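Service request form, structural biology core

Requester: graduate student, group of Dr. S.
Request type: structure prediction, single chain
Budget code: on file
Notes: please return the result as structure tokens.

Sequence provided:
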Amino acid sequence: MAGPTGPCPFGPQGSRAVHVVGAGVAGLVAALALARAGAAVTLHEAAPSAGGRCRALPDGTDNGTHALMGANHAALRFLDAIGARAGWIEPEPAGLPVLDLADGAARRIAASPLAWRDPALRPPGLTAGGLVALLRMALPLTDRPVAEALAKHPALLRGFVEPLTVAALNTPATEASSARLGQVLRRIGGSGAARLLVARDGLGPDLVAPALAALHAAGATVRFGRRLRAMTTAEGRATALHLNEETLSLAEGDAVILALPPWETARLIPGLKVPERHAPILNLHFAHPGDGPVRFLGLVGGLAQWVLVRPSGVSVTVSAADAETEETAEALAPRAWAEIRRAAAAFGLPGPWPDAPPPCRAVKERRATPRHGVGIPPHAPRRPMRNMALAGDWTWPGLPATIEAAARSGEAAARAILPLLPRKAAA
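Core staff response, request fulfilled:
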């Protein structure tokens, strides 16, 4: 059989070698899809563990406080595919508890407009005019800063839209794109689409470990500590991967998926258009074991934005953390802990919650996501070479850089490679 790029040397089971570089969510999704389609998949990862920004740290702590929503169909498909869906639970089915640190107001807010028929679940400051402003943002007609689009509705902006903006776009509302936020608003409007889900035990046991187990069961090979230093290309295709000190020659029928951050992809493929401006995320993990259920709280008007409480400890997320990432953990921990204690008291979380902060670990991702500002973002082609596809949250134009975007990009990269496989493998 001859494929699009010429004769295809098949593996021992009639499969073709596919090398997936990068074991974040995008790479894991792509690798599993291709391995289950019959390809001989090798997944290469520079770090000592998988997961990318969704990884578990060596001590078992999550890299960050990650949540999914019911609208994240690709991410949920992947959880189903690896048998991990039961590990993701809805900690706040009655609405998201939100504490305004300025005035002490504690309320529950529903993310879905369908639930706003109940006045008790409406965002603060929601008026008929504010609802119209949100509907306008949900329509892909104009693009301007989110804060400008909601300037006439400051209470709604502060209490609902701005927290949603920094959570979904990781960009301050003063510069964040209303068109990109509109992509999010359109997705969470349906029934069940705004359900918030978190990993019950953590990203390690509830995402990374089952993904690696599924890859192993599908016959894929996973190799850690393998950084792609360079590539050799010729006649529009990749011909060799230079991983650490090893050169891996690619046969005519082999394929590659690069599931790497934009700056790494641009280093390997000169001239590729990628996002160049990025925004940081700060996570603080407090060693505070407890006996209560998993909880997820929102805070407005302080340092902490989201608080995830598990029996193993308490984690805080600060998105769009340009200033905060320059501070030390010693300076940040007491401020965050004081806010956590107020939230615990406001929503009746079982204690104790001592005055002094427990041991805290700060995790700073200085280039966590692209900055989602106004304007059309750079868009890299899915197939920059005949035998190569790109994956990664930054390559999916229909959403900001999220777990869902990463999963969708992994699916798309696998679909782009599938036509290169022998019919037996692609069937």
